Amino acid sequence: MLTSAATGMILYGLYSILVGVIDFVAAGRLEWWANLWLIGAGSVLMLGAIFVRVSMPGGLALAVGGLLALQSISLHNASHLFGRITLVPELARAILAASLVALAYFGWESDGFQIGKNPDGD
């Protein structure tokens, strides 16, 4: 479960980084700071996903921070791109984030590497 959560977080972070870079370089539909926010939040999420995968303390909190940052910039971008905030895409994004956090939380002790523990169970 921990690997699935980390993989989902890395893919979501990579998607956000790519969207921010493409809009920053080519499309220019959003403000420059909104694109930088997308890139930064995606980077934080990817770093948090790596820390989640190795069960590093604070990794899940960092990943949650990245997910919340992506949710907040999504609300801003939706209002600029579509003129309104639509419920279904924002709700789907929130459900994805909650699912990734739940997978990471419940898989933390069962699948991850715990510092100071012997993998053989001794």
Instruction: Estimate the strand proportion.
Output: under 5%
* Form type: globular
* Structure annotation, total helices: 4
Radius of gyration equals: 16 Å
Low-confidence stretches: none
- Characterize the quaternary organization of these chains: single chain
- Could you tell me the number of beta strands? 0
Helical percentage: over 70%
What does this entry look like structurally?
- The protein is an all-alpha fold and 122 residues long.
- The protein has one domain.
- Helix content is 80%, strand content 0%.
- The chain is built from four helices and no strands.
- The chain is globular.
- It starts with a helix and ends in an 11-residue tail after the last helix.
- The mean pLDDT is 86.
Outline of this structure?
The chain is mainly α. It has helices spanning 2-27, 32-53, 59-82, 87-111.
Question: What's the arrangement of secondary structure elements?
Answer:
Elements: H1 2-27, H2 32-53, H3 59-82, H4 87-111
Helix pairs in contact: 1-2, 1-4, 2-3, 3-4
Q: Which short descriptors sum up this protein?
A:
mainly alpha, globular, 80% helix, 122 residues
